Amino acid sequence: MSWLEILTLAGLGAFHGLNPGMGWLFAVAIGLQERSALAVLRSLVPIAAGHALSVFAVAALVEGLRSVLATRVVAIAGGLVMVGFGLWRALSRRHFAWAGMRLTPWQLTGWSFLMSSVHGAGLMLVPVLVANPPPGVHQDHALHAPSDPSALLWQGLAATTVHTVAMVTVAGVIGLLVYRVLGLEVLRRAWVNLDLVWAVALIGSGAAAVALTL
Amino acid sequence: MPLWKPDPTFYPSPRQAVSAPAEKLAYVAAFDRAAEQPDAIAVLDVDETSDSYGRVVGWTDLPHRGDELHHFGWNACSSALCPSSPHPHVERRYLIVPGLRSSRIYVLDTKDNPKAPKIVRTIEPAELAKAGYSRPHTVHCGPEGIYVSNLGGADGADGPGGIALLDHDSFDVLGAWEIDRGPQYFGYDFWWHLTRDVVVTSEWGTPSMIEDGLVGELLLGRKYGHSIHFFDLRKRRHLQTLDLGDQHQMALELRPAHDPTKEYGFVGVVASVEDLSASVWLWHRAESGDFAIRKVIEIPAEPADAADLPPILQPFGAVPPLVTDIDLSVDDRYLYVSAWGIGKLLQYDVSDPFAPRLTGEVRLGGIVTRAAHPAAPDLALAGGPQMVEVSRDGRRVYITNSLYGAWDDQFYPDGVGAWAARLDVDLDNGGLSPDPRFFPHGDEFRGRRVHQTRLQGGDASSDSYCFP
């Protein structure tokens, strides 16, 4: 992975961590319920795990496909899926519905996995994943040939880890800031419609991925 | 279109909701008992600085007759900020308005012209029947959509009553909410401890027990509801029943603490068949982990001459208080209790919920007293404080005077009339007094009776909160 790719993955992680819906808000709610800053941080562990699982599912799929198909094909297909998914997110008025606030760590992991998945968190990484040349393959040839599956899978895992560490760091900092310093009032002022931003980001980067590959 | 910022009427916590600006409009369910005119949503001007303050300034007739509007609620509220299924960029703009008699549910849009809500959807009884229910009652906005409690079963079945789930956006009936209702059969009110995954439901009776009036034999036979039920909000399964004892007939309004770290709430009981007293009970999480309940307020019947009483009460020689609605202020400090029979609205300081302290009372109407409003001192009032709604800041209390068509006729046989009043609260010392400038009544309501009030932007019984 190049530094640019690492930075992009981390940047997307930070972007996901910023979103209250992705977990820090839940962590703050649990912290307030238990009156403990430690509870805020503790609940971010399963939230990060769920997010990582959701992202890795997409990464593994992309890398798996690259082991049998030309990366160019994967990139175009991935881009089209992103555009379609983004359009659906932008046009659908449906929102994620989950009843229940008292969750075991496993349930919280499941919640985070579903929440990240229905928002297309992993999909957003597709352009970075396909831009990343398979190990041992020079960038010039990377778009054309299938590559070694296990090396690709390790690459997907590495990308997921970089992304998730950035995500949970940002989520933890914001969660603690809101819990300790800012207070909940910030929600009313600063919680912009990130669902809309995400949809636009998916459509834009999906379209760019297709355009750049063609 | 979804909003860019959260709907400004949503508050993460009750602590913040009390700082909400004062409401400017109030929506009131108005119904024609004779079913000759359509029922309506009346719009009251509640803005003190307005020239038309205290007047009916808007009116939306419904397209059918005989719906019997009763309770209603908002499509979305502060629960949209809850972190498990956040959707704060929806708008609080639709009123979900059930017809308790017709089983129709109307959706009214208040956005374009808040003084003239527009009907945008009618859910017919056959659609509600898909959930297995009829006679829709309480509406709450929650994590999985819009929840509507019902008194009756579908396709002519008297029961069981229960909760139907409606889609947040399309308002389609999704089905019955319960997966396992346990021994619960009667429906009436419901609410929840949202952060504890607990739903509470209460019991009135089935349609055949109420629609033609209060049935004396059923009451004396202790057949009306006298229990409350707890469900798991997530698993939709029955957890526990608390029986108040069958002498305590009709456990109606449920008011859980707004503070999401608290697990207690109040339920009002209409009448004890032993002495006609009414009562308020407190449920709370006991050390065992189960819920427990105890009586914390008892209001005795007032002796009266049989000659002054309607036929249904003459054998008893007393006026039952008939606690028919209660409401808890958003800061969980004051509990308001309607005693519709004796014509009183009582205010209790419930800072210690186990030991309520009476801090104020107002007399208006009443079966025998017929107490007048200061705005019209010569007008003997029928009905009494019934539906009670509290502003988010806790400073204003709104009341209306009709209970339920067929029951109004039994307790106020010479006509219950129609009036609404606003009471101003002394937050520091307790106490409340009628605002002499606010008394819409009589013809102002165009021959309809008035039931529940909802305040623009939310009120003490519309929103639930996930953050303390």
TrEMBL record, chain A:
Segments passing through the bilayer: 6-32, 44-62, 68-88, 108-131, 151-179, 191-212
Domain of life: Bacteria
Keyword annotations from UniProtKB, A to Z: Membrane, Transmembrane, Transmembrane helix
Protein's name in the database: Uncharacterized protein
Automatic annotation (TrEMBL), chain B:
Superkingdom field: Bacteria
Protein family (similarity comment): Belongs to the selenium-binding protein family.
One function term, GO molecular function aspect: selenium binding
Organism: Asanoa hainanensis
Protein name: Selenium-binding protein 1
